[in-house]
Amino acid sequence: MKKLHKLIIVTFIVVVLSCNDNGKVVDLSQHPNIQKTYDPSVPITIISNAIIKTNYKDSIYPKDFEAVFMDSTFVKEITERGQSTYSFHTVNIGKIKIESGHIIACDPSFMQHGKPFTDKFPIGNFDVQLSIANIPVQNNRVAFSRILFSSNPVRKWVYATREGEEKVPINDSTLYSFPVDAGLAIYIDQTARDVFNAYDSKDFMKVFVNGMEKEGNFFGYVHNFESHNLATFSTGYGDGSYGSFIGLDKNGEICRLVSDLGILMWWKK
Q: Which of 45-49, 122-126, 209-213 has the least mean pLDDT?
């Protein structure tokens, strides 16, 4: 994990403040997150992916989005090279302050021009949780991140979309995503983002390089500045394009925001 973060840090230094955040639609068959090796040039074909044990009792599709945040969950994935079984545990990295209800999810280096999701989220302080996949041979990775707005059960999952993006069905063949080039992502309220944008590059280094190097922060942490904060976390195997999804309760109220960080191909059954 330390070697991975050294690579992330070097990459981040190169790209910070140099890119624009352009949301895009990608075909799942060409999804960059199918990489299951440290060498991004060698894709692995996924044959099937199935939950084989979990305490999650509901059947709301996709079950993975809730099940991976339960320590009892095991997922078996079969590829042309064989099969692996992943277990999961959850890390709570702190509470994020949502001030305007307009949330941005992006690579930190794209924060300046990051576009918020069109849905307005609850205002307040909410837990940010990371689902850590315990991966045979390749160490632990952040498989999913989420903001837990309430403990209400999810009754429906929908895409978290930005301006100009259509609310396609969750089982559609396309995925709206945010690009990551630094191996890190953030959640931040638009109000907090506008404040952070006034800081200089030294503050970026302090938060996203020095902060992630601190003992206990390898997976992610919440950074407070003035009366605002942001949550930052590592993304799966590193770079890629990652989709976000909104969980709605029985009353149609938002109770989750989940980002899929590319460890599981949950749609491949």
A: 45-49
